[in-house]
Design goal:
With 307 residues, the protein is of the alpha/beta class. It is 37% helix and 14% strand. One of its GO terms (molecular function) is aspartate carbamoyltransferase activity.
Amino acid sequence: MHKEMDVVSALQFSRSDVEKLIAIAEELRRRVENGEKLELAKGRILFTAFFEPSTRTRLSFQFAMAKLGGNVIDLGPEEVTSRAKGESPEDTLRTVDSYDPDIIVVRHREPGFAARAAEICKAPVVNAGDGYNEHPTQALLDVYTIWRSLGRIDGVTVGVMGDLKYGRTISSLSYILSNFRDVTIYFISPQALRPREEVLKILDQRRTRYELLEKPDDAMEKLDILYVTRLQKERMNPEEYERLKGSYIITYEYLSRFKKIPMIMHPLPRVWELTTDVDVLPQAIYFEQAKNGLYMRMALIKIILGV
């Protein structure tokens, strides 16, 4: 088992890694859409261990493995496992790892947990979100979505809006984008929710252009992509959440004020920050984005398994 196949951070991916994954995702997509029954992962097992709630990411990994012809075993909800008796996640993973799964996909609310899981397990570990820290596979599918929508990643201008401090998708997306040329990122958030220092530091090191703004209006017509995120209620204190809640709401009416409407992305789930009336716009590509996640995760699994 190659331990170098752990996927813990988006910083592991170079430009050529991302391009290779996009090419594989496109090829798998063609084969699936042509009705081919894939058996690339036949006899292999993917284990999903989500110690924090998830719908799309968990199901997308499970569907990806199933569509590659492999098997999936899921840890199941907390109340039906030994975690309800107080077992540590580390011990759960050690036990499962001893059953020799081919890949373990982990989500946990603690930043840095995925790296710890990778140290514990001999099977390759994929980080499906570790607290506010990172969500590398989300960033890969986001960049794949940008590429599919615009035909390029070089030279894109992306506005990332919402909770940029606790939102883990933001750090990973920034890291992946920083591999490409002439990218500009507008970080749009209240001052209290600006991106974390460690994220901006990496962008500075990689000479990626970015600006910090408080209102989307100032950048809207310059954007190719507006990436909306929810406020991470579960990582904030209630007063802070209530105070900032109304800061950013993207509605159809708001967007129609602008001469140019960018492509609208959202990692989902959405709450109130992106209203359903936006769904009718041709620029609303967030459900397509979720679908792209299936093919990008299939590509990643294919590479990790070496099939």
